[in-house]
Amino acid sequence: MIRWILRSSGVLLLLAAGTALYVYVQIRTLEVDQVTPDIWVIYGLGGNVGVLRTDDGTVMVDTMMTTFQGRRLRERAEALAGGPIHTIINTHYHSDHTHGNPAFAAGTSIVATERTLDYLRFLDAGSWSGDSATGLPNDTFKRDRMLRIGGKTLHLLHPGPGHTGGDLVVLFVEDRVLHAGDLLFHRRFPVVDLEGGGSFRAWSSALAGVLLLDFDRVIPGHGTLAGREELRWFGSFITQLWDAGERAAAAGWSLEETLERAVLLGVDHFEPTMMSRLTSHDRDYLIRRVWEEATGAVTPTPLGEAH
């Protein structure tokens, strides 16, 4: 018995060590893809990071999930674009897109929607105390913002709830490139934050508004580079998913019945999405979440009660 316990403990220690090594390697790994002569995307453990070169410095969209990554991203972005960080833009509040913020100099312009700042303060308050508070967005807007930085025009738009209740997209106007944040998961199972104001029901409408913008290429929040048609297809997939949720709610199906009966077309080529807590999201996750929204089993957290 003691020998079995020792063997089991050894296996658990090896698994823990393997997980720690995986996280360590992934946090240190950054890969770069050039989108246009002035735009790059950096991939790593966390949301995709967009980098824009301007005459006044470097603009970065999102900062991944740790201060260590933030420091590495700053170095890599400044080397790519040839200038210091001028502005950071956070597409939404999730840790895998914002927790690198404190690695940047205090006073750096950090732009986000007002709702994203609310969620950071209420739903993620424990991460922004002490020195880390300098990483909170300090320039916010509700719906629409135009930025002119070093000869480049950036159109920031909050098209409505989708992945969260505060998502924004960034259109790099001259380059005709859109950073969609987590409103687009390219060839991956999407994730919705119902507690943080996200909504499958509203998501496709938000994407319809985004498709009115003038762009050719898309940087997704997770996955490889995409284009207009991939974004359009993703919107139709979200509509299909919401229809499945409504059908289950109207029929009074339990979650177990919905998991068994719901049909989703087009997911065969999807990869599981690994988020900041290393949890994997797949077809059953999607069905569960859309059932929770359609039946009212989960509703957004009132911000005033989210401390």
Q: What is the strand and helix layout of this fold?
A:
Blueprint (H helix, E strand, L loop, with lengths): L1 H27 L2 E6 L2 E5 L5 E6 L2 E5 L5 H15 L3 E5 L5 H4 L10 E5 H10 L15 E3 L2 E6 L2 E6 L11 E4 L4 E9 L14 H11 L6 E6 L3 E2 H24 L3 H7 L11 E2 L5 E2 L1 H13 L12
Parallel strand pairs: 4-5, 5-6, 6-7, 11-12
Antiparallel strand pairs: 1-2, 2-3, 3-4, 8-9, 9-10, 10-11, 12-13, 14-15
Helix pairs in contact: 5-6, 6-8
Keywords:
6-stranded mixed beta sheet; Metallo-beta-lactamase, Chain A; 23% strand; 307 residues; alpha/beta; 36% helix; 8 helices; 15 strands
Q: H/E element string?
A: HEEEEHEHEHEEEEEHEEHHEEH
Number of structurally distinct domains: 1
Mean pLDDT metric: 91
Using the CA coordinates, give the radius of gyration: 20 Å
Q: Order of strands across the biggest sheet? A: 1-2-3-4-5-6-7
Q: Which CATH top level class fits?
A: Alpha Beta
Percentage of residues assigned to helices: 25-40%
Structural summary, described in words:
The protein is of the alpha/beta class and 307 residues long. The protein has a single domain (30-305), classed as Ribonuclease Z/Hydroxyacylglutathione hydrolase-like (Metallo-beta-lactamase, Chain A). It is built from eight helices and 15 strands. Helix 5 (200-210) packs antiparallel against helix 6 (228-251). The radius of gyration is 20 Å and the shape is globular. The relative contact order is 0.11.
